[in-house]
Write a structure and sequence with these properties.
The complex is a heterodimer of chains A (290) and B (261).
Chain A (H helix, E strand, L loop, with lengths): L1 H30 L8 H24 L7 H10 L1 H35 L1 H16 L2 H12 L4 H23 L4 H9 L4 H38 L7 H10 L3 H29 L12
Helix pairs in contact in A: 3-11, 4-5, 4-7, 4-9, 5-7, 6-7, 6-9, 7-9, 9-10, 9-11, 10-11
Chain B lengths: L1 E13 L2 E14 L3 E5 L6 H8 L7 E6 L4 H6 L3 E4 L11 H5 L1 H4 L15 H7 L15 H13 L5 E5 L7 H18 L2 E6 L2 H7 L2 E6 L4 E7 L14 H22 L1
Parallel strand pairs in B: 3-7, 3-8, 5-6, 6-7
Antiparallel strand pairs in B: 1-2, 1-4, 8-9
Helix pairs in contact in B: 8-9
The chains are: A mainly alpha (290), B alpha/beta (261).
């Protein structure tokens, strides 16, 4: 009798073991490989959400034809002038990516300096806050005056807009390293540089990726604002919106907005993919089971 | 030669005013000896360990690690430190974590006659041969702590400082860990200063138990542990062991009453 219960219990234990093994396998399976996206539970919810939004839009647009164009009108506009949108998309993309890269790199270098030397943080943080609170739309025209209608003012505006969020996140990340690991490095007499490279930098990576997910779409906003103020050679989606607006061409305006939205989503997605590639050790990088 | 702590004092400035963490603390750990520090919370045992490790500077007194002050001893990589949490780098594998001591402060390694261990060999002798390429978060708490100890062993320091390394583990794992540590220690008899809260742990591991009392932190008693070595798990069932435990406990009680009188 007793023996029987014992076997039963051990069988039960085996069963749980196996299921947890299976669970882990599925999870590993899922975190690599593209077939994650085949699962309807992954792509269906956002699709439904977008569908409902389009439906609501359409219902409203049908009754207010002079305020907003209908969904088919916007899509037709896109299909009829693919070259126009593609050309302008590339310009905005370049401004966003180059500007954001400059801004994020500068912010990260400054954050490293701030975390190594407290004095640098004390001296420069108020300045960084000042840059952050200055309405970018107000200084953009001045930048155009200084740097002309080329790409330079656009890079600057984009860089400035991503600078502060990236600075704060980098600094938090660099300071987030485990103090006890810090003790271990100190008792080995590791140099400040060795601690930065081998401990602080890797510890900051999850924060950097979180910041990049905010900054990449934000850089699109920066690029559009800059184009708006300084149309330059009338290129970029921001310029296109500006021009179309002055002609009351609402279809082009909303088609451009749609392209901008897709650009933002695309840039975010690139960051997420990189994050999963490079940050396998961190929990934020693991895909949840669908 | 070994560790000599002579008249060390330390006060901290806190919001409630100055707190004397340590007052005139002296102790010595001979070469190849295992000494535990035990005492109520706030008795400064961790502070003392951190002073020896060169992480905190003492206000007065001297610390000599085989003739060198802590600063010089750490600069020469003579000090192995095992913190309370394993403090492993989560982005590195077990093996790469144990390689950290070789990758920093390389200047210290050029000294002639320096003897290093093979990290793989050390991990295998710790029973971690199967998880060399696992990441720390795939390991149990006990195994992670063993990796942290291996990281302190691998560069063959002259002294090992351990700050309650088993405090986060459950009781059963803890008991197993201390006997595994005993086995490891037995094979090369390092000089160890070990901070703990656990009376059986202190008695089972040590050649001497230093009981401290708080406010200000000072040495209340030094209890020699003359249990024969090597010590197996059965040692904890002997009468001598229980007598020693009782002695440590009664000293602790007095130390505790000191603070709350």
């Amino acid at each position: 009798m007793h023996e029987e219960t014992a076997t039963e219990t051990s069988a039960l234990v085996d069963a749980t073991d196996q299921s947890s093994e299976e669970h882990r396998l599925v999870e590993e399976d899922v975190s690599h490989g593209l077939h994650y996206w085949i699962h309807p539970r992954v792509w269906l919810p956002p699709l439904v959400a977008f569908g409902l939004l389009a439906l609501g839009w359409q219902l409203y647009a049908v009754h207010n034809r002079f305020i907003i164009p209908t969904v088919p009108q916007i899509l037709t506009q896109l299909v009829d002038h693919p070259g126009l949108f593609w050309r302008n998309l590339l310009v905005t993309l370049q401004e966003a990516v180059v500007g954001a890269s400059i801004g994020m790199l500068a912010a990260f270098v400054l954050a490293m300096g701030m975390c190594q030397v407290r004095l640098v943080e004390r001296a420069l943080m108020p300045l960084a806050v000042m840059i952050n609170v200055t309405p970018i739309i107000a200084i953009a025209p001045v930048l155009v005056l200084a740097f002309g209608f080329g790409m330079t003012p656009k890079y600057i505006v984009t860089a400035v807009i991503v600078f502060f969020p990236f600075l704060i996140n980098s600094l938090t990340g660099l300071k987030s390293s485990d103090p006890q690991a810090h003790d271990v490095f100190t008792t080995l007499h590791a140099s400040k540089w060795e601690i930065l490279v081998r401990l602080r930098l890797p510890s900051s990576l999850p924060f950097l990726f979180a910041a990049a997910r905010i900054c990449m779409p934000l850089s699109v906003v920066g690029a559009v604002v800059a184009e708006y103020v300084a149309p330059g050679k009338a290129s970029g989606l921001g310029s296109l919106i500006e021009t179309a607006m002055s002609l009351s061409d609402l279809k082009t305006v909303y088609a451009s907005v749609l392209v901008l939205a897709l650009l933002g989503i695309g840039l975010s997605a690139v960051v997420v993919v990189l994050q999963r590639r490079l940050l396998g050790w961190h929990q934020t990088a693991v895909l949840r089971r669908p | 030669m070994g560790l000599d702590v002579l008249g060390v004092s330390k006060t901290f400035d806190t919001r409630k005013g100055r707190v004397a963490a340590l007052r005139d603390v002296s102790l010595r750990v001979g070469r190849g000896r295992f000494v535990s520090l035990i005492g109520p919370t706030g008795c400064g045992k961790s502070t003392l360990l951190r002073i020896v490790a060169g992480l905190v500077e003492a206000d007065g007194g001297t610390v000599s690690i085989f003739g060198e002050p802590p600063e010089r001893a750490t600069a020469a990589k003579h000090v192995g430190f095992v913190p309370q949490s394993p403090a492993l780098l989560p982005w590195r594998t077990v093996l790469d974590n144990v390689r950290v001591p070789f990758q920093v402060n390389r200047k210290a390694d050029s000294v002639l006659g320096r003897r290093f261990r093979d990290p793989v060999e050390v991990l295998e002798s710790f029973g971690l041969g199967d998880v060399l390429h696992s990441r720390p978060d795939q390991l149990s708490g006990g195994m992670q702590q063993k990796v942290a100890i291996a990281r302190a062993f691998v560069f063959d320091p002259s002294i090992l400082l351990m700050d309650e390394p088993f405090s986060a583990l459950d009781e059963l794992t803890r008991e197993r860990q201390r006997h595994e540590l005993l086995d490891i220690w037995q094979s090369d008899q390092k000089t160890v200063l070990f901070v703990t809260h656990s009376v059986p742990e202190a008695v089972a591991l040590s050649d001497a138990v230093v009981v401290m009392s708080a406010q200000p932190g000072r040495v209340r008693a030094v209890i020699p542990v003359n249990l024969p070595r090597p010590r197996g798990e059965l040692v904890e069932a002997t009468d001598v062991f229980h007598d020693l435990e009782r002695r440590v406990r009664s000293e602790l009680r007095v130390a505790w009453n000191d603070n709350h009188a």
